[in-house]
């Protein structure tokens, strides 16, 4: 049986009744739609970028579940220091990037998912961090290549980036050898996100 987004769903027949398995998630599609609509209100020029996300969330399976195709939501953090630098992390020799990843079924919110990844990947806890908003500063769709070995088709990550500021002295050095992090100047952050971070930095200095 195929779900509305073309993804096979697990089902079983018990005593003549067809049961359809849908993963349980705390962050509902309605919550994602609400976030998207508020984000569009603040960024009306990006309406077309998020239109497909809203349609999928209205008619499809849980939009935050990592197995949902053709798209699902991921979260990350843009953590900015008091001197205007942005935290990047690296694991297993991969490229440097903002800490983030998929939403877990136990995450209470998209921001909560982003904070969980920040703690796991950079050893930075939420204490001492100041969120700019409960809404993401940026939402951008990114195409993801298929992974045949995992039976994973091509799909899209709608990456929600939350802006947080670190209070002076709030960050300690990581204790794990597996945790690698570095700070990058806001001036070196590219694309739409970089423009928004620089705009927010200029606004905070006023």
Summarize the structure.
This protein is of the alpha+beta class. The protein has helices at 29-42, 47-59, 110-122, 191-205; strands at 11-14, 17-20, 71-80, 85-90, 100-102, 129-131, 138-144, 155-166, 180-185. The model is unreliable at 1-14 and 18-22 (pLDDT under 50).
Count of helical regions: 4
Largest sheet: 5 strands, mixed
CATH superfamily: Nucleoside Triphosphate Pyrophosphohydrolase
Mean pLDDT: 86
Pfam families: NUDIX
Domain Nudix hydrolase: 70-206
Keywords: Membrane, Transmembrane, Transmembrane helix
Transmembrane segments: 12-37
Helices, strands, pairings?
Layout: E1 11-14, E2 17-20, H1 29-42, H2 47-59, E3 71-80, E4 85-90, E5 100-102, H3 110-122, E6 129-131, E7 138-144, E8 155-166, E9 180-185, H4 191-205
Helix pairs in contact: 1-2
InterPro entries: NUDIX_hydrolase-like_dom_sf (IPR015797), NUDIX_hydrolase_dom (IPR000086)
Keywords: Membrane, Transmembrane, Transmembrane helix
Pfam family, one: NUDIX
Q: Describe it for me?
A:
By secondary structure, this protein is of the alpha+beta class. The chain has a single domain, classed as Nucleoside Triphosphate Pyrophosphohydrolase (Alpha-Beta Complex). Helices cover 27% and strands 27% of the residues. The protein is built from 4 helices and 9 strands; from the N terminus they run ββααβββαββββα. Strands 3, 5, 6, 7 and 8 form a 5-stranded mixed sheet that branches. The protein has a two-stranded antiparallel sheet with strand order 1-2. β1 (11-14) and β2 form a beta hairpin. α1 packs antiparallel against α2 (47-59). It is globular. The model is unreliable at 1-14 and 18-22 (pLDDT under 50). The chain crosses the membrane at residues 12-37.
């Amino acid at each position: 049986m195929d779900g509305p987004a073309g993804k096979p769903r697990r089902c079983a027949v018990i005593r003549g009744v067809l049961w359809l398995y849908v993963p349980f998630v705390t962050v509902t599609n309605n919550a994602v739609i609400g976030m998207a609509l508020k984000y569009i209100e603040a960024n009306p020029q990006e309406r077309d970028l998020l239109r497909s996300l809203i349609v999928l969330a209205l008619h499809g399976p849980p939009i935050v579940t990592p197995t949902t195709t053709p798209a699902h939501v991921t979260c990350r953090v843009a953590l900015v220091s008091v001197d205007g630098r942005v935290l990047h992390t690296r694991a297993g020799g991969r490229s440097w990037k903002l800490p983030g990843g998929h939403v877990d079924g136990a995450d209470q919110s998209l921001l909560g998912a982003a904070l969980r990844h920040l703690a796991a990947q950079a050893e930075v806890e939420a204490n001492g961090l100041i969120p700019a908003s409960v809404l993401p500063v940026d939402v951008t769709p990114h195409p993801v290549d298929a992974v045949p070995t995992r039976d994973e088709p091509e799909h899209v990550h709608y990456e929600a980036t939350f802006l947080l500021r670190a209070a002076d002295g709030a960050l300690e050095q990581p204790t794990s050898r597996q945790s690698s992090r570095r700070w990058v100047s806001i001036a070196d952050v590219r694309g739409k996100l970089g423009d928004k971070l620089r705009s927010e930095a200029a606004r905070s200095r006023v």
